[in-house]
Specification:
Elements lengths: L1 H18 L18 H10 L2 H10 L9 E8 L17 H17 L1 E8 L1 H14 L6 E5 H9 L21 H6 L1 E2 L2 E2 L9 H4 L2 E6 H6 L5 H7 L4 H11 L15 E5 L3 H8 L5 E3 L5 E3 L4 H15 L6 E3 L13 H6 L3 E7 L13 E4 L13 E3 L4 E4 L7 H13 L4 H10 L8 H12 L1 E3 L1 H4 L4 H11 L6 H22 L4
Parallel strand pairs: 1-2, 1-3, 7-10, 7-11, 13-15
Antiparallel strand pairs: 3-14, 4-5, 6-11, 6-12, 8-9
Length: about 500
């Protein structure tokens, strides 16, 4: 009970700090707990600081003396996301220094040396397959995009994290919601949490140009989100309102103003944001191919009519809209130059907007309709998973080290990421931090990515981007093969065959 109360207190304090961009004080975030002496608890909460709570939580993280053991990690490089797990020295840059301080603290506590080898994503797969096949424990763990780590689990090459007692996935530094999405019965093969930033970088979001909102006297998107009225219909209305043929040549191209700029990858993000999935779980929690119903097809038709019908001249689409090569970063530049109201991309791509002069903000993807209870954010298949290979010589030692690395990331590194992500000319405000918090708290994996069964979403997206309003017949043709592959992979994950 004591540990849970401390965890809840720390979560509340961190979320208060997160939402206010470090402008609030620690005592504003206290919450109540189920204890037998409410008066005593109230007094304790009033006197408790964030540092006290963090110290108490860290005291319960397992320690040890590993005699200078070298903890080696294989890590992936990325062209859009922060992925580094080590830093050579303090530089004054927030993320770098938080990583450096974290690693020093963990290395000193456990008497270890931490070594990271960074290679391109394809090399991670090659190197780990080579090590595992040879029974080589060169790397105690590795990171790569989730869609490239999950095949290792399907092939029986990863340890079950649930067997590692040193790792407590109920601790607040692990992302419990996302981990629940990728747990299979008693088996958990993957780790996601505060220790590796590429996970956060892979959440899809909707950026918007505040100047265009104001110029057209449109309602504040932040308020729409809070009221639960930020829907696909509302987004379409905004896009239609602001689109304009600026040069008057009768053709919408890179010289004009669009309602949105994006690429075809947004289809899956829209579907999940509408709370539709391609793989469900049955009564026993086992993943099964989803049975499309009327709502499934209604959502599809809404996405097509909103984004991909040829008549929708308010959409700037990579590969389709003419004359966008004039901008640095192509369709991204359409937004940063002030030629689009909305920008659909994962959070990591905000780096492309560092020098944007217009005031802008971020919100989650819209709901399908107001009746939908919650906003849902798609965590892309290139979000980083940590896997622990079966060749790891001492899984409990690896667990102690990873638990400490994640725990020591929970404070400074988490806040450094928020500060860096919102460190633009015009985006740093309390509302943007509030929305970033909402996005990160509403993330959901698509099991099509994790279970290597991509035909359902590929069929859905291909038809949508081709503006085909009819989906049912095409979708039905792939279900037998997709279902068979799904059952095969799930059986392997559950050790059923």
């Amino acid at each position: 009970m004591k540990k849970r109360i401390l965890s809840l207190l720390l979560v509340a304090l961190m979320m208060t700090q997160f939402a206010a961009c470090s402008e609030t004080t620690a005592d504003e975030g206290a919450v109540s707990g189920d204890v037998s002496n409410p008066a005593a608890e109230q007094e304790t909460e009033a006197e408790t600081t964030e540092e006290d709570i963090m110290e108490a939580l860290l005291a319960e993280v397992p320690g040890g003396d590993y005699g200078g053991y070298e903890f080696a990690m294989l890590n992936n490089e990325s062209n859009f996301a922060y992925t580094q797990m080590s830093a050579e020295e303090l530089t004054g840059e927030g993320i770098n220094d938080a990583i450096y301080n974290r690693n020093v603290a963990v290395a000193e506590k456990l008497n270890i040396a931490i070594r990271e080898n960074m290679v391109v994503y394809s090399q991670v797969t090659t190197d780990m397959n080579t090590c595992i096949a040879a029974g080589d424990d060169m790397y105690s763990c590795f990171w790569n995009e989730s869609k490239f780590v999950s095949p290792f689990a399907i092939q029986g090459q990863l340890l079950n994290v649930n067997d590692i007692t040193a790792i407590n996935l109920e601790n607040p530094w692990w992302n419990g919601k996302a981990l629940a999405d990728v747990e299979f019965g008693d088996y958990q093969y993957f780790l996601v949490g505060d220790l590796h930033l590429m996970f956060k970088e892979s959440y899809w979001m909707c950026g918007f140009n505040k100047n265009i909102i104001d110029e057209n006297s449109l309602g504040d998107p932040y308020e729409l989100v809070r009221e639960g009225t930020w829907t696909l219909d509302q987004m379409k209305t905004y896009m239609e309102t602001v689109a304009m043929d600026l040069d008057g040549n009768g053709t919408m191209d890179g010289a004009d103003r669009f309602g949105v700029t994006c690429y075809g990858g947004c289809v899956g993000a829209f579907a999940l944001a509408a709370d539709e999935t391609f793989i469900d779980r049955n009564a026993d929690g086992v993943p099964v191919l989803a049975e499309p119903d009327d709502r499934f097809y209604a959502v599809y038709e809404k996405i097509v009519s909103t984004m991909f019908e040829p008549a929708n001249t308010y959409v700037c689409m990579d590969g389709k809209t003419q004359n966008i090569a004039q901008y640095e970063n192509g369709w991204h530049g359409v937004f940063s130059s002030g030629h689009a109201l909305f920008y659909l991309e994962p959070i990591g791509s905000l780096k492309k907007l560092r020098d944007m002069d217009a005031e802008f903000g971020i919100v989650p993807f819209p709901k399908y309709e107001e009746a939908q209870e919650e906003y849902v954010t798609y965590i892309a298949g290139y979000a980083a998973f940590c896997g622990i290979p079966v060749t790891t010589s001492d899984m409990q030692r690896t667990g102690v080290i990873l638990e400490n690395l994640c725990a020591y990331s929970y404070g400074d590194l988490r806040q450094a990421y928020v500060d860096t992500t919102l460190n633009f000319k015009y985006i740093r405000d309390q509302e943007s931090a509030e929305m970033l918090n909402l996005i990160l708290d509403s993330g959901r994996f698509s099991l099509t990515d994790i279970l290597a069964v991509t035909t359902p979403v590929d069929t859905y997206a291909s038809n949508a981007t081709s503006a085909k309003m009819e989906l049912a017949s095409t979708y039905a043709k792939m279900t037998k093969a997709a279902g068979k592959l799904l059952d095969k992979n799930v059986s392997k994950l559950l050790k059923l065959g």
